[in-house]
Sequence to fold (338 residues):
Amino acid sequence: MKILVTGGAGFIGSAFVRMALDEDTAWRVVNLDKLTYAGNLENLAGVSESPRYRFVRGDIADGGAVMRLFAGEKPDAVVHFAAESHVDRSILSPEPAVRTNLYGTFCLLEAARVHQTPLFLHVSTDEVYGSLEEPLEADENFPLQPSSPYSASKAGSDLLALSYGKTFKLPVIVTRASNNYGPYQFPEKLIPLMISNAMEDKPLPIYGDGMQVRDWLFVDDHCRALLAVLDKGRAGEIYNVGGSLALPNKEVVRRILAATGKSESLMRYVADRPAHDRRYALSSEKVMRETGWAPRMPFDEGLALTVRWYRENIDWVRHVKSGEYMQYYERNYAHREP
Ligand code: NAD
Ligand code: DAU
Fold:
Protein backbone atom coordinates (compact mmCIF):
# COMPACT_ATOMS: atom_id res chain seq x y z
CA MET A 1 0.00 0.00 0.00
CA LYS A 2 1.50 3.29 -1.08
CA ILE A 3 -0.09 6.42 0.36
CA LEU A 4 0.47 9.86 -1.06
CA VAL A 5 0.17 12.29 1.83
CA THR A 6 -0.06 15.98 1.00
CA GLY A 7 0.98 18.51 3.65
CA GLY A 8 2.80 15.84 5.62
CA ALA A 9 5.30 18.36 7.02
CA GLY A 10 2.57 20.27 8.83
CA PHE A 11 1.05 19.69 12.24
CA ILE A 12 -1.57 16.97 11.59
CA GLY A 13 0.05 15.61 8.41
CA SER A 14 3.34 14.89 10.20
CA ALA A 15 1.50 13.18 13.08
CA PHE A 16 -0.31 11.08 10.48
CA VAL A 17 2.92 10.15 8.64
CA ARG A 18 4.60 9.13 11.90
CA MET A 19 1.59 7.06 12.93
CA ALA A 20 1.02 5.45 9.52
CA LEU A 21 4.64 4.29 9.19
CA ASP A 22 4.56 3.02 12.74
CA GLU A 23 1.20 1.21 12.57
CA ASP A 24 1.62 -0.76 9.39
CA THR A 25 4.98 -2.01 8.18
CA ALA A 26 3.55 -2.79 4.74
CA TRP A 27 2.80 0.88 4.09
CA ARG A 28 4.92 3.28 2.13
CA VAL A 29 4.39 7.01 2.34
CA VAL A 30 5.21 9.69 -0.23
CA ASN A 31 4.91 13.14 1.33
CA LEU A 32 4.19 16.02 -1.06
CA ASP A 33 4.68 19.33 0.70
CA LYS A 34 5.55 22.84 -0.45
CA LEU A 35 7.18 23.71 2.90
CA THR A 36 5.35 26.96 3.43
CA TYR A 37 5.89 28.78 6.74
CA ALA A 38 3.80 25.97 8.33
CA GLY A 39 5.76 23.06 6.83
CA ASN A 40 8.74 21.87 8.83
CA LEU A 41 10.87 18.83 8.10
CA GLU A 42 11.99 18.79 11.74
CA ASN A 43 8.52 17.38 12.45
CA LEU A 44 9.54 14.27 10.51
CA ALA A 45 13.08 13.80 11.81
CA GLY A 46 12.13 10.40 13.25
CA VAL A 47 10.99 8.94 9.92
CA SER A 48 13.11 10.76 7.34
CA GLU A 49 15.61 7.89 7.04
CA SER A 50 12.95 5.18 6.70
CA PRO A 51 13.18 3.25 3.40
CA ARG A 52 9.37 3.33 3.35
CA TYR A 53 9.25 7.14 3.30
CA ARG A 54 9.93 9.63 0.53
CA PHE A 55 9.70 13.41 0.69
CA VAL A 56 8.87 15.43 -2.42
CA ARG A 57 8.93 19.20 -2.21
CA GLY A 58 6.19 20.59 -4.42
CA ASP A 59 3.09 22.71 -4.74
CA ILE A 60 -0.28 20.96 -4.98
CA ALA A 61 -1.46 23.89 -7.11
CA ASP A 62 1.17 23.08 -9.76
CA GLY A 63 -1.04 20.84 -11.90
CA GLY A 64 1.76 19.58 -14.18
CA ALA A 65 4.04 18.59 -11.31
CA VAL A 66 1.17 16.88 -9.49
CA MET A 67 0.20 14.91 -12.61
CA ARG A 68 3.82 13.76 -13.08
CA LEU A 69 4.06 12.69 -9.45
CA PHE A 70 0.92 10.54 -9.75
CA ALA A 71 2.24 9.02 -13.00
CA GLY A 72 5.52 8.10 -11.33
CA GLU A 73 4.26 6.98 -7.92
CA LYS A 74 0.85 5.51 -8.77
CA PRO A 75 -0.40 5.81 -5.17
CA ASP A 76 -3.02 3.40 -3.81
CA ALA A 77 -4.52 6.19 -1.74
CA VAL A 78 -4.23 9.93 -1.26
CA VAL A 79 -4.60 11.49 2.18
CA HIS A 80 -4.91 15.19 1.48
CA PHE A 81 -3.93 17.54 4.33
CA ALA A 82 -2.09 20.31 2.46
CA ALA A 83 -3.80 23.62 3.06
CA GLU A 84 -3.46 27.18 4.21
CA SER A 85 -5.00 26.25 7.55
CA HIS A 86 -5.17 29.46 9.58
CA VAL A 87 -8.32 31.60 9.69
CA ASP A 88 -6.53 34.82 10.72
CA ARG A 89 -4.04 34.56 7.87
CA SER A 90 -6.88 33.92 5.41
CA ILE A 91 -8.47 37.16 6.63
CA LEU A 92 -5.22 39.12 6.25
CA SER A 93 -4.54 37.59 2.77
CA PRO A 94 -7.28 35.39 1.29
CA GLU A 95 -5.47 34.54 -1.98
CA PRO A 96 -3.15 31.75 -0.72
CA ALA A 97 -6.09 29.97 0.94
CA VAL A 98 -8.16 30.07 -2.22
CA ARG A 99 -5.23 29.01 -4.40
CA THR A 100 -4.04 26.10 -2.29
CA ASN A 101 -7.25 24.90 -0.68
CA LEU A 102 -9.47 25.15 -3.73
CA TYR A 103 -7.28 25.10 -6.82
CA GLY A 104 -4.66 22.82 -5.23
CA THR A 105 -7.36 20.31 -4.31
CA PHE A 106 -8.64 20.50 -7.88
CA CYS A 107 -5.15 19.65 -9.24
CA LEU A 108 -4.94 16.61 -6.95
CA LEU A 109 -8.44 15.43 -7.88
CA GLU A 110 -7.64 15.75 -11.57
CA ALA A 111 -4.47 13.68 -11.19
CA ALA A 112 -6.35 11.08 -9.13
CA ARG A 113 -9.08 10.93 -11.79
CA VAL A 114 -6.64 10.51 -14.68
CA HIS A 115 -4.56 7.90 -12.83
CA GLN A 116 -7.60 6.15 -11.32
CA THR A 117 -6.37 6.37 -7.75
CA PRO A 118 -8.30 3.80 -5.69
CA LEU A 119 -9.06 6.11 -2.73
CA PHE A 120 -8.93 9.87 -2.14
CA LEU A 121 -9.34 10.96 1.49
CA HIS A 122 -9.94 14.70 1.71
CA VAL A 123 -9.18 16.03 5.20
CA SER A 124 -11.54 18.86 6.04
CA THR A 125 -12.94 20.78 8.96
CA ASP A 126 -16.02 21.41 11.10
CA GLU A 127 -15.62 25.11 10.25
CA VAL A 128 -17.52 24.49 7.00
CA TYR A 129 -20.74 24.26 9.07
CA GLY A 130 -20.20 27.76 10.44
CA SER A 131 -21.40 28.94 13.83
CA LEU A 132 -24.12 26.88 15.54
CA GLU A 133 -26.65 28.08 18.13
CA GLU A 134 -27.04 26.03 21.32
CA PRO A 135 -28.11 23.20 21.42
CA LEU A 136 -27.54 22.36 17.74
CA GLU A 137 -24.90 19.83 16.69
CA ALA A 138 -23.84 19.44 13.06
CA ASP A 139 -24.16 16.01 11.54
CA GLU A 140 -22.82 15.35 8.05
CA ASN A 141 -26.02 16.64 6.39
CA PHE A 142 -25.95 20.00 8.18
CA PRO A 143 -25.95 23.02 5.79
CA LEU A 144 -22.58 24.54 4.94
CA GLN A 145 -22.32 28.13 6.21
CA PRO A 146 -18.62 29.01 6.25
CA SER A 147 -17.69 32.45 7.59
CA SER A 148 -14.02 33.03 6.66
CA PRO A 149 -12.06 32.78 3.41
CA TYR A 150 -10.34 29.74 4.98
CA SER A 151 -13.54 27.87 5.80
CA ALA A 152 -15.21 28.90 2.53
CA SER A 153 -12.24 27.57 0.55
CA LYS A 154 -12.42 24.31 2.54
CA ALA A 155 -16.19 24.03 1.95
CA GLY A 156 -15.60 24.59 -1.77
CA SER A 157 -12.90 21.92 -1.83
CA ASP A 158 -15.19 19.47 0.00
CA LEU A 159 -17.89 19.98 -2.62
CA LEU A 160 -15.42 19.68 -5.47
CA ALA A 161 -14.04 16.43 -4.04
CA LEU A 162 -17.54 15.00 -3.59
CA SER A 163 -18.42 16.04 -7.16
CA TYR A 164 -15.49 13.96 -8.47
CA GLY A 165 -17.02 10.99 -6.65
CA LYS A 166 -20.42 11.55 -8.21
CA THR A 167 -19.35 12.60 -11.71
CA PHE A 168 -16.21 10.55 -12.34
CA LYS A 169 -16.76 7.72 -9.83
CA LEU A 170 -13.50 8.62 -8.10
CA PRO A 171 -13.68 6.95 -4.66
CA VAL A 172 -13.65 10.04 -2.46
CA ILE A 173 -14.16 10.29 1.31
CA VAL A 174 -14.36 13.62 3.16
CA THR A 175 -13.59 13.90 6.87
CA ARG A 176 -14.45 17.01 8.92
CA ALA A 177 -12.56 17.32 12.17
CA SER A 178 -12.86 19.76 15.03
CA ASN A 179 -10.01 21.83 16.55
CA ASN A 180 -6.85 19.76 16.88
CA TYR A 181 -4.15 20.33 19.47
CA GLY A 182 -0.95 18.56 20.45
CA PRO A 183 2.82 18.59 19.84
CA TYR A 184 4.30 20.24 16.72
CA GLN A 185 1.37 22.65 16.20
CA PHE A 186 2.48 25.98 14.74
CA PRO A 187 2.19 28.68 17.43
CA GLU A 188 -0.29 30.80 15.47
CA LYS A 189 -3.20 28.60 16.65
CA LEU A 190 -4.84 29.22 20.04
CA ILE A 191 -3.31 26.51 22.22
CA PRO A 192 0.35 26.61 21.10
CA LEU A 193 0.29 30.40 20.86
CA MET A 194 -0.97 30.71 24.42
CA ILE A 195 1.50 28.10 25.71
CA SER A 196 4.47 29.76 24.05
CA ASN A 197 3.44 33.28 25.12
CA ALA A 198 2.89 32.07 28.68
CA MET A 199 6.33 30.43 28.69
CA GLU A 200 7.81 33.82 27.70
CA ASP A 201 5.61 35.83 30.14
CA LYS A 202 4.02 37.63 27.17
CA PRO A 203 0.35 38.72 27.12
CA LEU A 204 -2.19 36.09 25.99
CA PRO A 205 -4.46 37.80 23.39
CA ILE A 206 -8.07 36.62 23.75
CA TYR A 207 -10.37 37.71 20.92
CA GLY A 208 -13.62 39.44 21.93
CA ASP A 209 -15.13 38.15 25.17
CA GLY A 210 -13.40 34.76 24.99
CA MET A 211 -16.73 32.92 25.19
CA GLN A 212 -16.44 31.34 21.74
CA VAL A 213 -16.76 27.57 21.99
CA ARG A 214 -14.55 25.04 20.23
CA ASP A 215 -14.52 21.23 20.34
CA TRP A 216 -10.99 20.04 21.12
CA LEU A 217 -9.51 16.90 19.58
CA PHE A 218 -6.05 15.52 20.38
CA VAL A 219 -4.09 15.21 17.13
CA ASP A 220 -3.34 11.48 17.53
CA ASP A 221 -7.05 10.80 18.07
CA HIS A 222 -7.70 12.58 14.77
CA CYS A 223 -5.02 10.52 12.99
CA ARG A 224 -6.45 7.27 14.39
CA ALA A 225 -9.84 8.33 13.02
CA LEU A 226 -8.30 8.88 9.58
CA LEU A 227 -6.70 5.42 9.65
CA ALA A 228 -10.06 3.94 10.70
CA VAL A 229 -11.81 5.73 7.84
CA LEU A 230 -9.16 4.57 5.35
CA ASP A 231 -9.84 1.03 6.52
CA LYS A 232 -13.60 1.02 7.00
CA GLY A 233 -15.01 4.24 5.52
CA ARG A 234 -17.33 4.14 2.53
CA ALA A 235 -16.56 5.96 -0.72
CA GLY A 236 -18.76 8.99 -1.35
CA GLU A 237 -19.36 9.55 2.35
CA ILE A 238 -18.54 12.37 4.78
CA TYR A 239 -17.41 11.61 8.34
CA ASN A 240 -17.33 14.16 11.16
CA VAL A 241 -14.51 13.65 13.68
CA GLY A 242 -14.92 15.54 16.95
CA GLY A 243 -13.26 15.37 20.32
CA SER A 244 -16.58 15.49 22.25
CA LEU A 245 -15.04 18.18 24.45
CA ALA A 246 -16.48 21.67 24.12
CA LEU A 247 -14.88 24.57 25.99
CA PRO A 248 -15.01 28.37 25.76
CA ASN A 249 -11.68 29.88 24.76
CA LYS A 250 -11.12 31.73 28.01
CA GLU A 251 -11.47 28.47 29.93
CA VAL A 252 -8.86 26.89 27.66
CA VAL A 253 -6.55 29.83 28.33
CA ARG A 254 -7.09 29.55 32.09
CA ARG A 255 -6.17 25.87 31.97
CA ILE A 256 -3.04 26.69 29.96
CA LEU A 257 -2.01 29.25 32.56
CA ALA A 258 -2.59 26.70 35.31
CA ALA A 259 -0.61 24.05 33.41
CA THR A 260 2.30 26.44 32.79
CA GLY A 261 2.19 27.80 36.35
CA LYS A 262 1.60 31.39 35.15
CA SER A 263 -0.71 34.11 36.45
CA GLU A 264 -4.11 35.00 34.94
CA SER A 265 -2.87 38.60 34.83
CA LEU A 266 -1.30 37.64 31.47
CA MET A 267 -4.80 37.36 29.91
CA ARG A 268 -5.60 40.29 27.55
CA TYR A 269 -8.97 40.82 25.90
CA VAL A 270 -8.26 42.23 22.43
CA ALA A 271 -10.24 43.20 19.33
CA ASP A 272 -12.28 40.35 17.95
CA ARG A 273 -11.69 38.36 14.75
CA PRO A 274 -14.03 39.58 11.96
CA ALA A 275 -16.98 37.19 11.44
CA HIS A 276 -15.76 35.16 14.41
CA ASP A 277 -17.76 31.93 14.68
CA ARG A 278 -19.30 31.77 18.14
CA ARG A 279 -19.74 28.05 18.57
CA TYR A 280 -18.75 24.84 16.81
CA ALA A 281 -20.47 21.60 17.79
CA LEU A 282 -20.15 18.34 15.95
CA SER A 283 -21.86 14.97 16.01
CA SER A 284 -19.33 12.19 15.40
CA GLU A 285 -21.88 9.43 15.80
CA LYS A 286 -21.43 8.19 12.20
CA VAL A 287 -17.67 7.61 12.30
CA MET A 288 -18.01 5.93 15.69
CA ARG A 289 -20.80 3.63 14.49
CA GLU A 290 -19.21 2.71 11.16
CA THR A 291 -15.56 2.36 12.18
CA GLY A 292 -15.55 1.79 15.95
CA TRP A 293 -13.34 4.87 16.46
CA ALA A 294 -13.70 7.05 19.57
CA PRO A 295 -11.49 9.81 20.95
CA ARG A 296 -9.30 8.54 23.80
CA MET A 297 -7.31 11.48 25.14
CA PRO A 298 -8.87 13.38 28.08
CA PHE A 299 -8.40 17.12 27.50
CA ASP A 300 -6.43 17.94 30.66
CA GLU A 301 -4.08 15.02 30.04
CA GLY A 302 -3.61 16.03 26.40
CA LEU A 303 -3.00 19.63 27.43
CA ALA A 304 -0.45 18.63 30.09
CA LEU A 305 1.35 16.46 27.53
CA THR A 306 1.29 19.31 25.00
CA VAL A 307 2.64 21.86 27.51
CA ARG A 308 5.42 19.42 28.43
CA TRP A 309 6.28 18.96 24.74
CA TYR A 310 6.60 22.73 24.16
CA ARG A 311 8.73 23.09 27.29
CA GLU A 312 11.03 20.27 26.19
CA ASN A 313 11.27 21.52 22.59
CA ILE A 314 12.30 25.12 23.11
CA ASP A 315 14.61 24.97 20.09
CA TRP A 316 11.75 23.91 17.82
CA VAL A 317 9.64 26.80 19.15
CA ARG A 318 12.49 29.30 18.79
CA HIS A 319 13.13 28.14 15.25
CA VAL A 320 9.53 28.45 14.03
CA LYS A 321 9.01 31.77 15.81
CA SER A 322 11.85 33.48 14.04
CA GLY A 323 11.57 35.75 10.99
CA GLU A 324 8.25 35.46 9.19
CA TYR A 325 6.39 34.61 12.40
CA MET A 326 7.32 37.88 14.05
CA GLN A 327 6.09 39.84 11.02
CA TYR A 328 2.82 37.89 11.04
CA TYR A 329 2.42 38.43 14.79
CA GLU A 330 2.88 42.16 14.39
CA ARG A 331 0.41 42.27 11.48
CA ASN A 332 -2.27 40.27 13.26
CA TYR A 333 -1.95 41.60 16.80
CA ALA A 334 -0.51 45.14 16.77
CA HIS A 335 -3.83 46.77 15.82
CA ARG A 336 -5.79 44.67 18.32
CA GLU A 337 -4.39 46.21 21.48
CA PRO A 338 -7.28 47.54 23.61
P1 NAD B 1 -0.62 23.13 8.91
O1 NAD B 1 -0.81 24.55 8.52
O2 NAD B 1 0.08 22.81 10.16
O3 NAD B 1 0.14 22.36 7.74
C1 NAD B 1 -0.20 22.55 6.39
C2 NAD B 1 0.88 21.84 5.55
O4 NAD B 1 0.50 21.97 4.17
C3 NAD B 1 2.26 22.44 5.71
O5 NAD B 1 3.23 21.43 5.82
C4 NAD B 1 2.45 23.24 4.42
O6 NAD B 1 3.80 23.36 4.02
C5 NAD B 1 1.65 22.41 3.44
N1 NAD B 1 1.17 23.19 2.29
C6 NAD B 1 0.53 24.39 2.33
N2 NAD B 1 0.29 24.81 1.07
C7 NAD B 1 0.76 23.85 0.24
C8 NAD B 1 0.78 23.70 -1.17
N3 NAD B 1 0.29 24.64 -1.99
N4 NAD B 1 1.33 22.58 -1.70
C9 NAD B 1 1.86 21.62 -0.89
N5 NAD B 1 1.88 21.73 0.46
C10 NAD B 1 1.33 22.82 1.02
O7 NAD B 1 -2.09 22.50 8.88
P2 NAD B 1 -2.76 21.46 9.88
O8 NAD B 1 -3.28 22.19 11.04
O9 NAD B 1 -1.87 20.29 10.03
O10 NAD B 1 -4.04 21.05 8.99
C11 NAD B 1 -3.93 20.01 8.02
C12 NAD B 1 -5.28 19.83 7.36
O11 NAD B 1 -6.26 19.50 8.33
C13 NAD B 1 -5.80 21.07 6.63
O12 NAD B 1 -6.41 20.65 5.43
C14 NAD B 1 -6.84 21.65 7.57
O13 NAD B 1 -7.85 22.32 6.87
C15 NAD B 1 -7.37 20.38 8.23
N6 NAD B 1 -7.89 20.56 9.59
C16 NAD B 1 -7.11 21.17 10.56
C17 NAD B 1 -7.59 21.26 11.86
C18 NAD B 1 -6.79 21.92 12.95
O14 NAD B 1 -7.31 22.12 14.05
N7 NAD B 1 -5.52 22.24 12.73
C19 NAD B 1 -8.86 20.77 12.16
C20 NAD B 1 -9.62 20.18 11.14
C21 NAD B 1 -9.10 20.07 9.87
O1 DAU C 1 -12.42 23.79 13.81
C1 DAU C 1 -11.36 23.29 13.04
C2 DAU C 1 -10.43 24.42 12.67
O2 DAU C 1 -9.75 24.77 13.88
C3 DAU C 1 -9.43 24.08 11.59
O3 DAU C 1 -10.12 23.86 10.39
C4 DAU C 1 -8.42 25.20 11.39
O4 DAU C 1 -7.42 24.79 10.48
C5 DAU C 1 -7.78 25.52 12.72
O5 DAU C 1 -6.93 26.64 12.58
C6 DAU C 1 -8.85 25.82 13.77
O6 DAU C 1 -9.54 27.05 13.47
P1 DAU C 1 -9.92 28.08 14.62
O7 DAU C 1 -10.10 29.41 14.03
O8 DAU C 1 -11.01 27.54 15.48
O9 DAU C 1 -8.54 27.95 15.47
P2 DAU C 1 -7.62 29.03 16.18
O10 DAU C 1 -6.63 28.25 16.98
O11 DAU C 1 -7.11 30.06 15.25
O12 DAU C 1 -8.62 29.73 17.19
C7 DAU C 1 -9.34 28.98 18.15
C8 DAU C 1 -10.23 29.97 18.90
O13 DAU C 1 -9.40 30.84 19.67
C9 DAU C 1 -11.05 30.85 18.00
O14 DAU C 1 -12.32 31.09 18.61
C10 DAU C 1 -10.26 32.14 17.93
C11 DAU C 1 -9.60 32.20 19.30
N1 DAU C 1 -8.29 32.87 19.35
C12 DAU C 1 -7.32 32.46 18.50
C13 DAU C 1 -6.09 33.06 18.49
C14 DAU C 1 -5.03 32.61 17.52
C15 DAU C 1 -8.04 33.88 20.27
O15 DAU C 1 -8.93 34.23 21.08
N2 DAU C 1 -6.81 34.47 20.27
C16 DAU C 1 -5.83 34.12 19.40
O16 DAU C 1 -4.74 34.73 19.44
